[in-house]
Amino acid sequence: MGESPRFALTSTVLGAPDARELARFYRALLGWTVRADEPGWVVLAAPGGGAGLSFQTEDAYVRPVWPEEPGRQQMMLHLDIAVEDLGAAVERATALGADLADHQPQEDVRVCLDPAGHPFCLYTP
């Protein structure tokens, strides 16, 4: 096997019933800027560079459940988001449209669900 080609992760893509709506939520939550906005596709850029977040409209989108339940759509990934003040971060996220998950598996982490149902974890490093 020869030399490996260079790989660079540029974005994580979240499916949603409405890409713009979900991008609007994360833009407000993270304070990131819009790098691309096309029908059914939005890309947010992280300040200072690095991998961004992209959002794709999926007509057959099925909202995941968390924690998982047999026979139901499970999450495929979740985002970990570092914050300085966990309580204030949860308050901000829920004010923007997130839901605090009923099940919280750790004391120092808060699992929230974005408006499309994707879980994300807020934590203090």
TrEMBL record:
Residues 8-125 form the VOC domain. InterPro entries: Glyas_Bleomycin-R_OHBP_Dase, Glyoxalase_6, VOC_core. Gene3D superfamilies: 2,3-Dihydroxybiphenyl 1,2-Dioxygenase, domain 1 (3.10.180.10). It comes from the Bacteria. This is VOC family protein. It comes from Arthrobacter bussei.
